C-alpha cells in the first residue's frame, strides 16, 4: 500500500530536478566557512535599546506574544536584524547572534526580548495544533520512540528540517540558549545545496528520487537562526546537570511571513 501511494504521488507531480551544481555562499562546507562568518555581535547600542525596552515592559506588562517591536525604540536592533536577514538570504543560511546579557534578565524577560528581536525578522507562528508559539526545548526524561518528539529527550538527532510534513513549514527556526547542557547538545547544520552537489557528483542517477514525495511518520544567551527551507539541523546527544535550574534549556521560535499564523498555515 505504501509503495502504491508513493508511486501515485510520483506520477502526479512534475519533477524539476536541478542538473547543475549550486554555487555561492549557501553551498558551503565546514572547510570553506570561516568560524566568525555567520556570527553577529550584539553591540552596546543594541543592548541599551533592549534595556530600555525591558524597562517599558516591566512598567507595562503584557503577554509576550502581544509585544510588538513598533512599541519600542530599536533602531540599532533593526539594523542588526536586517543584517541577519541578508546573511540568511544571501549568505550561509544561518546566523548566530552573540549574545543576550542573560545575567540582567529573568527567564521570562529573556523570552520577551528574544521574541521582540525575532519579530524584526519575521512573524512567530504556531508550532503545534494547540497554537503553541513559544516552545521550551528541554529533556523531560522520555525515552526516544514512536510518539515521542526528539526535542524532549537527550538523544542525538539526525539532520532534519522542522515541520517538513506540513503544508507551510517555517522559513526560519530560532533557538535561544538559556542554559547549555553539562556536556554535549551541540547544534549542527548542513547545507542542502552542498548535499545536492555531492549527490550530483557521486550518485546523479539517484538524485531525481530525492525530489519526489515520500511517506513521513508523524507518529547560553546566544540565538541561533537557521533557514529552515535550505538547511538541515540537528544536535548531538548530551548529559545534563542534576539541578533543575541548570539543565539544558533552549527556547524555540518558528518564523514565517507566508500564509496564516495557524499551525498548518
What would you note in describing this structure?
There is one protein chain. With 265 residues, the chain is α+β, with helices and mostly antiparallel strands. It has a single domain (39-255), classed as Clavaminate synthase-like (Double-stranded beta-helix), CATH 3.60.130. Helices cover 27% and strands 17% of the residues. The strands form three sheets. A six-stranded mixed β-sheet has the order 1-2-7-4-10-3, covered by helices on one side. The protein has a two-stranded antiparallel ribbon with strand order 5-9. It has a two-stranded antiparallel ribbon with strand order 6-8. Helix 2 (44-59) packs across helix 3 (75-90). The longest helix has 16 residues, at 44-59. The model is unreliable at 1-6 (pLDDT under 50).
Low-confidence segments, given as residue ranges, are 1-6
How are the strands of the largest sheet arranged?
Answer: 1-2-7-4-10-3
- SSE sequence, one letter per element: HEHHEHEEEEHHEEEE
- CATH class category: Alpha Beta
What is the number of helices? Answer: 6
> What's the pLDDT, averaged over the residues?
90
| Biggest pleated sheet | 6 strands, mixed
Give the full name of the CATH homologous superfamily: Clavaminate synthase-like
Please state roughly what percent of the residues sit in beta strands, choosing from under 5%, 5-15%, 15-25%, 25-35%, 35-45% or over 45%.
Answer: 15-25%
- The backbone outline, from C-alpha atoms, is globular
SS class? alpha+beta
Q: Separation of termini?
A: 29 Å
Instruction: Write the CATH fold name.
Output: Double-stranded beta-helix
Radius of gyration: 20 Å
Amino acid at each position: 500500500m505504501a509503495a502504491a501511494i508513493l508511486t501515485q504521488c510520483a506520477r502526479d507531480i512534475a519533477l524539476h530536478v536541478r542538473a547543475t551544481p549550486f554555487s555561492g555562499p549557501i553551498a558551503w562546507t565546514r572547510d570553506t566557512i570561516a568560524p566568525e562568518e555567520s556570527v553577529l555581535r550584539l553591540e552596546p547600542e543594541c543592548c541599551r535599546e533592549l534595556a530600555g525596552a525591558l524597562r517599558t515592559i516591566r512598567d507595562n506588562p503584557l503577554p509576550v506574544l502581544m509585544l510588538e517591536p513598533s512599541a519600542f525604540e530599536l533602531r540599532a536592533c533593526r539594523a542588526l536584524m536586517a543584517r541577519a536577514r541578508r546573511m540568511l538570504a544571501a549568505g550561509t543560511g544561518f546566523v548566530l547572534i552573540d549574545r543576550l546579557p542573560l545575567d540582567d534578565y529573568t527567564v521570562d524577560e529573556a523570552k520577551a526580548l528574544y521574541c521582540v528581536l525575532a519579530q524584526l525578522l519575521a512573524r512567530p507562528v504556531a508550532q503545534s495544533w494547540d497554537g503553541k508559539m513559544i516552545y521550551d526545548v528541554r529533556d523531560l526524561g522520555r525515552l526516544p520512540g514512536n510518539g515521542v518528539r526528539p526535542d524532549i529527550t537527550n538523544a542525538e538527532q539526525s539532520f532534519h528540517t522542522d515541520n517538513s510534513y506540513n503544508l507551510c513549514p517555517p522559513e526560519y527556526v530560532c533557538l535561544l540558549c538559556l542554559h547549555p547542557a553539562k556536556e554535549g547538545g551541540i547544534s549542527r547544520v548542513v547545507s542542502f545545496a552542498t548535499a545536492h552537489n555531492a549527490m550530483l557528483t557521486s550518485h546523479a542517477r539517484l538524485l531525481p528520487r530525492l525530489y519526489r514525495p515520500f511517506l513521513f511518520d508523524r507518529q547560553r544567551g546566544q540565538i541561533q537562526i537557521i533557514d529552515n527551507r535550505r538547511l538541515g539541523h540537528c544536535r548531538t546527544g548530551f548529559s545534563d546537570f542534576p539541578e533543575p535550574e541548570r539543565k539544558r534549556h533552549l527556547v524555540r521560535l518558528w518564523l514565517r511571513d507566508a500564509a496564516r499564523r495557524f499551525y498548518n498555515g
